[in-house]
Amino acid sequence: MDPTTLDRIIELQKNPASIRNLCILAHVDHGKTTLADCLVASNGIISSRQAGKLRYLDSREDEQIRGITMKSSAISLHFQEGDEDFLLNLIDSPGHVDFSSEVSTAVRLCDGAIVVVDAVEGVCPQTQVVLRQAWLENIRPVLVINKIDRLIVELKFTPQEAYAHLQKIMEQVNAITGTLFTSRVMEKQAEKTKEEQGCETPLEDQVYDWSAGLEEADDSHLYFSPDQGNVVFASALDGWGFSIRHFALMYSERMGINPEVLLKTLWGDFYLNAKAKKIMKGAQVKGKKPLFVQLVLDNIWSLYNAVVTHRDKEKVEKVLASLGVKVMARDSRHSDPKVLLSAICSQWLPVSQAVLSMVCNKLPSPIQITAERVEKLMSVGVRRFDTLPERTQELKNAFLQCSSNENAPVIVFVSKMVAVETKALPHNKKRPLTQAKISQCRELARQRHAERMAAAQQNHSVNALVDIQSGRLCKGDEIATEGLKESKTEEQRETFIAFARVYSGVVQKGQRIFILGPKYDPAQGLSMLPEHCNPSDSLPEVPHLSCCSIENIYLLMGRELEELEEVPSGNVLGIRGLEDFILKSATISTTPACPPFTPLNIEASPIVRVAIEPKHPGEMPKLVRGMRLLNQADPCAEVLIQETGEHVLITAGEVHLQRCLDDIKKFAKIEISASKPIIPFRETVVRPPKVDMVNEDLGKQQKVAVIHQVKDEVSHGRATGTLHVDSSGLVTLTTPNKLATVSVRAIPLPQEVTCLLENSSALIRTLEQVNMTLREGRNLDISVRTLEAITDLKAQLESKLQGRKWRDAVEHIWAFGPRRCGPNILLNKLEGYQRPSFWQYLCQEDKSGKDGAQTKNTREFDNSIVSGFQLATLSGPMCEEPLMGVCFCIERWDVQSLNWKHENTFEEMATFQEALGTIKAPESTDALEVTPTHPSQAKRYQDITSADCYGHVSGQLIAAMKEACRHAFQAQPQRLMAAMYTCEIMTTADVLGKVYGVVGKREGRILHEEMKEGTEIFIIKAVVPVAESFGFADEIRKKTSGRASPQMVFSHWEVISSDPYWVPTTEEEYLHFGEKADSSNQALKYMNAVRRRKGLYVEEKIVEHAEKQRTLSKNK
Ligand SMILES: Nc1nc2c(ncn2[C@@H]2O[C@H](COP(=O)(O)OP(=O)(O)OP(=O)(O)O)[C@@H](O)[C@H]2O)c(=O)[nH]1
Ligand SMILES: [Mg+2]
User: Fold this and answer.
1) Model confidence pLDDT, tens digit, residues 105-150
2) Which residues are in the CB-under-5-Å shell of ion ligand 2?
3) What is the distance between the alpha carbons of residues 1004 and 982, in angstroms, rounded to a whole number?
4) Closest CA to 233 of 136, 281, 301
5) Predicted confidence band at 212 (pLDDT cuts at 50, 70, 90)?
6) What are phi and psi of 908, to 5 degrees?
7) CB-side exposure of 1040: number of CA atoms within 13 Å?
8) Ligand 1 test: best mutation among 23, 29, 54, 60, most atoms within 8 Å of CB?
9) Nearest ligand for residue 237 CA
């Protein structure tokens, strides 16, 4: 980088008012990177001829090959408007759904965003997602409607049609903003009324306010409108773009109209009355040309017509003259008319000028950060801002002031870690020399040469020898040090650079700082650390807090990094030296009072799993290292070692998977092989079907079948003597020591309840945490919003679990599972067993103090029952996949309470083993009442009672509960559930049939299709099972010659209707399917595939009625 530019940027970094941190967001392929190219070219980093072709910010090889962005990357630009200088920290983000986590990391560091929308495709699914993301982070968006050239060249719209089309796009975008705004106002209003209710009027006096505050809230500044100056119309590829201010200023001079009036009327239903020389309203009604068409679009259309469509030289000359633009002869002679077009447009309507000026005027600087956003960033998890320690609350001012004072605390947020090749770091790179340096070196060399020549003349023979020797020596040294360096780089080929932003203070090279993990609690930290402590002091250990030094700091310049000494508040930067302390994201500060920032809103859920192994087994450690690096470098990918010992990688989709595999190869530098994607399933139970497979009414037949099945189970149970299954599906199981008995029944949950639980898992986890702290006797202040969400969840569950079967069910919920927050319920149906309610936090609000006595009522081993349930729901009996939508009711639970001590150690177990020789294992409770005869046996005896020959009672109970749940599950009709993608496909009418064909073949379902108004584009929404989705995008692209491409996002779980255990039972079924019924059963296929993968027993006949092969020729 040019040193003068660098100096200017360093200077600008010190003035937060002139900084804009922004990102470019859009749906995939709407032209973000192309637009970024134009902006980068304005700084001379790339030539303007290359802008749009180079895609400078797509620096990875695979990004260039595939033509999509996969990682967000930042670049700092300088822009001058009038007398003012601005520093723009620009982040380009990917648009593909698989990489939406990268968008989250970009949005967090910015104050504003450019939302790009393709003029032909309009608002697409990802456009909605990014608008929501920007909204959730409280950052301000501006709009660029890109690819307007396609309206002219491809769709061949008239200017009038194009105007109507653009208006529609604007409406669509504003509709989304409107919904987001309304929901926020509603939320705030609800919060306010809740607070008021808490302190004031009783409920009956409340009059429900339907308006919900919408009338009072001013939202006019939120919407996109060209006259507000927050919209630019552009064609990034052709290098032009404008906001209507440009035309307003131009025509106000020519026509002598006040520019402000033109600015207000240029976009909208206004027209020019030539006779009266006035601007009038009502162009549409009177059939007149709107001003925008007449003054703006007509000009652009005629330029395109002259240059691209008709290639009319004379006309071009005229246009050039009227625009006052000069082009080089080689551009006007070029065979590609687009070259001439770009040459004209980049002078007439330079897109970078339009966009950057809008950005500087409309987006906030770091000083303008709102208090609301700061509170949101600081209130981590369920905590309320006002419950944070006082010193923490004071830090809010530091955020708001964005001060770079010496005393200002340093607060930095790292949103992701970027792997950079160590040799690409600035200090390892040879820098190009400046002109001055070159001449200096030349001068030095000349002097040295002259000296040497003089010396040589004096003492020719002796010196020559020494010279050669020392020369050799020098060389030898070099080789040695090089060897050392090589071995070092071998160890550390990748260095992680933290992608971060400074919110307060000045970050300096070599500075000591605290790193706050996501779970760090400032209250705890402050109480454990001495006051006014420093990260460089030796301090006691505090959970989730560590200290380290910043090694280097960098200015992020796309592919390049520029080393800096310090970065003041309000800037985006790269930090080296944190890789051992930060996994994916973290907060950095010089004060332990700083809270960790709220975690990023990551929208994509990792769903595609593959098992990875190295080609050569000996390279396993390298693979493990590669996977560890990937885990750190990718915000969304997960790596883990499964119970089976496989190394598993979980990614958001197929494209993401491919990129992660490439990354692992690069990090580990070995050949790897990945398994076929491991497709997740869920297991569930359903109500007995009413019709059989040929749609005949089942009546009692099914019952017969169930009883038949149950009988099997019973006979099995008798064999072990501990299991009993009755005809209604109630399973009773006794522990091996016969001390405890549980009876469990499995019931399917209504679908909407399962959905609700699935979506509320984070909330349930929070509630579980709250319950845990309550059990420990502590209290946790949770925010009003969380409390409201919990109350709402309970109310929703109550309304959805109606009927006799579910009476009081919500109150009696014992636990959720698996992992204590999953979509299965454990229900307490025991008579007379009062345990603290799952909703005790809510009850505590009503009758504070009363619950203390209740808490004590928990029976011994309550936890064992929950653990058994957790294990049972984690892997079901069909193919050991997690359960979903199952409610287990405990109807009986007997346990002989003997006041056993159950915290035996292994040594005590050993003593017990010895003792077994002398004392018989207890057969029943009576046996335990025998008092030991010898006093020395007394302790031993106590030990034995707590662990009989079948192990600890609690352990036995866990196992018994798990088994009981599994049997109860099997006593119901079982089904598999498949993960489903929703998939939006944008296509043209002529290939619609082909798209339908592919969706059908992949077992997908079309939900709806609609045609975009005014275009030939169809939007199809479909669901496709994840299991069938691999290669789906490629197949569609191939079949439609690239005219349709799907965007798939995980949506929900769906029950596969066919029964994997189905065998024909009714006569009709025999007739229809034959005795063997070996026609394809999708559910069975999936189930067996999973079982085979997991090494479980698969019941399959490989050969039936085999016959010995004969050689036919012999029999002839
Ligand atoms: N006709 C036309 N094509 C454009 C324009 N801008 C971009 N494109 C083309 O659109 C395609 C996608 O452009 P990109 O800039 O890579 O899109 P992107 O939004 O960065 O895509 P992702 O990063 O993958 O989400 C490229 O083929 C561009 O040449 C434009 O103004 N007009
Ligand atoms: Mg891109």
Assistant:
1) 999 999 999 999 999 988 888 898 899 889 888 899 999 999 999 9
2) 32-33, 69
3) 9
4) 301
5) low
6) -65, -35
7) 26
8) 29
9) 1
